[in-house]
Structures are given as structure tokens and as C-alpha cells.
Amino acid sequence: MIEVWGCLLILLAAFVTDLKTMKIPNVITVTGIWSGLSYHLLTEGWRGAWFAVAGAATGFGLMFALYLLRAVGGGDVKLFAGIGAWTGIAFTLSTMMYSILAAGCIGLIVLIWRGETRVRLRRITGSVLGAAALRSAAPIQAAAKGQLQFPFMLAVLPGAILAIYYM
């Protein structure tokens, strides 16, 4: 249970800063990674260290793929490495899944509220079809420049809470 509380402390700090500045500073993300790794190393030895490294690599790697598509920022990538360092692979994957679902719901609500749903759906469809036809991510990356943006922590914190609830 200490792992979950350590992770939640990092998430709360990231939540506050992301809402204020749309950025998650390195001091929070790096602290999350190193404190999770240190905790597991001290309490479980090398086995715990590998648990933390595997979780951090999973969180970082999968979020880095989303970063390349310009779906998330660099702070989000490092934050998920911190989540993984504290909680391991399974919890990180659950948090990621719930966060992406929550982000989709938030995005859809904002689009409906603004009345931009059709325009955005056409743009997304065109970029995905263009990427498939060209066998390149370039159309998706180009379309990402005009995409809807909101602090991803609005989705990550509820995602983590759902992951805890269903754990």
C-alpha cells in the first residue's frame, strides 16, 4: 500500500502543476522515478529494483509512443515512468488504459460543448487514412498541431483512482 501512496503523492503534485502551467516539471517526474526505484531497492533488494525498472520502462516506453504522435507531452511520459517505478507494470498499464479512456471522454465532452465534433472527426479520419495510404505517421503528426489540448492530468488522476479501485 505504501507504493500506491508514494505514487499518489507524485500524481497530486503533477496534477496541481499541470493545471496551473500545462507542464509537469522534471523535479516532480525525476523525484517520482528515483523515489520509486529507491523505495523498492531498499525494501526488496535487487528484485525490487528490477520491478521498479520494468515498471518505469513500460510507462516511459508506451507513453513515448504517444509523445511521438504528439498526443501527450514530455512531462506525461516521464510521469508514467514514475508511476511505473512506484507501482510496477500491471498498475501502470491499468492507469494508462483508464487515463486514455478518461481523456477520450473529456475530449468528446469539450468538442460537443464547443460544437466542433464534425470538423475534428473529419480531420482525424483524414489524417488516419493519409497515414495508412502513405504508410507514414507524418499526416497524424501534422494534424496533431491543431488538436484539442487540455491538461492530461485531468484524465490521469481519475485513471489512477480507477486503477486503485479495481486493483
Automatic annotation (TrEMBL):
GO biological process: signal peptide processing
Domain Prepilin type IV endopeptidase peptidase: 7-108
PANTHER family the record matches: PREPILIN LEADER PEPTIDASE_N-METHYLTRANSFERASE-RELATED (PTHR30487:SF0), TYPE 4 PREPILIN-LIKE PROTEINS LEADER PEPTIDE-PROCESSING ENZYME (PTHR30487)
Organism taxonomic ancestry: Bacteria, Bacillati, Bacillota, Bacilli, Bacillales
GO molecular function list: aspartic-type endopeptidase activity
Organism for this UniProt entry: Paenibacillus mellifer
Segments crossing the lipid bilayer: 26-42, 49-69, 89-112, 148-166
One GO CC term, this protein: plasma membrane
Keyword Nucleus among UniProt keywords: no
Family note: Belongs to the peptidase A24 family.
Descriptive protein name: A24 family peptidase
Keyword Transmembrane on entry: yes
Classification via Gene3D superfamilies: 1.20.120.1220
Keyword vocabulary terms for this entry: Membrane, Transmembrane, Transmembrane helix
Superkingdom, natural source: Bacteria
